[in-house]
Design brief:
The structure is a single chain. The protein has 296 residues and is an alpha/beta fold. Helices cover 40% and strands 13% of the residues. The strands form two sheets. The protein has an eight-stranded parallel β-barrel. The protein has a two-stranded antiparallel sheet with strand order 8-9. Helix 1 packs parallel to helix 2, helix 3 packs across helix 4 and helix 4 packs across helix 5. Bound molecules: fe (iii) ion (2 copies) and zinc ion. Zinc ion binds next to helix 6.
Length: 296
């Protein structure tokens, strides 16, 4: 079954229940959220009452709880340990994220591997593994390392780099990968023949380690190392290639999450993009249609 959703909010007063309701309004059957603002580490306590209500509603609506995803904030950087206090802050915050996931009953936590900021890739890879080894397995939550675009000094923009991190992680049960189609494109992976990409991935890391796929089109050309997401079908990857990834038989049970931009920074596109994906028909006027419907 197609498991598709988008990035949704997580608000102090409605928490998981609010996130679920937003996902339902998009016609999704899964979703991803940050436990607070992605750019900062201000977090509030999880309210079990709301979590319980959300779980009941999910059962009713046929959501598979194990496919819901949390994204760790960008400010966590395990790649650089030059300042030991900063490094340990990242480790501790990530551990708290694991705890929050566990309280919310969520088993997938997506993490950007980090930026080496001058230390070099080799040191960065061993730092990331060192940080992960301090906390993995303390909760039954799997950390999914996201493939990156290679902007700045980002680590994890090749499958080989992701593999090197995983090889150094002790707890193999709680480590996996999140593919991001925009990032793969910007890193230089041509996905027009997605099956041969998957063959390579399977040989190196193993397809069973893919826990999530971020579905985004890209504003930039193959190998641009930019990381700017575009709405589905409106970028350089294109609708047909994205569909071939979304409906790939080998990734059927893996949650697909849209992180495409809002229209005019105001209107969420997800309900319309999800419908277009389910219908398998590209609407070249989608962005205008959304604006018009919202402005009525
Ligand atoms: Fe991400
Ligand atoms: Fe992503
Ligand atoms: Zn991105």
């Amino acid at each position: 079954m197609l498991i598709i959703g988008s990035h949704v909010g997580f608000k102090k007063d409605s928490q998981l229940l609010g996130s679920l309701k937003e996902a339902l309004s998009y016609g999704a059957n899964t979703f991803m959220f940050y436990t607070g603002a992605p750019q900062n580490t201000n977090r509030y306590p999880i309210m079990d009452g709301l979590t319980l209500e959300a779980m009941t509603l999910m059962k009713e609506k046929g959501f598979d709880y194990s496919k819901v995803v949390v994204h760790a904030p960008y400010i966590i950087n395990l790649a650089n340990d030059k300042d030991p206090d900063k490094f340990m802050f990242s480790v501790r915050f990530l551990q708290e994220e694991l705890e929050r996931c566990s309280l919310l009953g969520i088993h997938k936590l997506v993490l950007h591997p980090g930026s080496h900021v001058g230390l070099g890739v080799d040191a960065a890879i061993s730092n990331i593994a060192k940080g992960l080894n301090m906390i993995l397995g303390t909760y039954d939550v799997c950390i999914l390392l996201e493939t990156m675009a290679g902007k700045g000094t980002e680590v994890g923009c090749t499958i080989e780099e992701i593999k090197r991190i995983i090889d150094l992680v002790d707890d193999k049960e709680h480590i996996g990968v999140c593919l991001d189609t925009c990032h793969l494109n910007d890193a230089g992976y041509d996905m027009r023949d997605f099956d041969s990409f998957l063959d390579d991935f399977d040989r190196l890391i193993g397809i069973s380690n893919i826990g999530c796929v971020h579905i985004n089109d890209s504003k930039n050309v193959l190998g641009a190392h930019k990381d700017r997401h575009e709405n589905i079908g409106f970028g350089t990857i294109g609708f047909d290639t994205l569909l071939s990834i979304i409906y790939n038989k080998r990734l059927l049970d893996i949650p697909k999450i849209l992180e495409t931009p809002y229209i005019d920074k105001e209107y969420a596109p997800y309900k319309y993009e999800i419908k277009m994906i389910r219908d398998k028909v590209f609407n070249p006027n989608l962005l205008n249609d959304i604006k018009e419907q919202k402005e009525l």
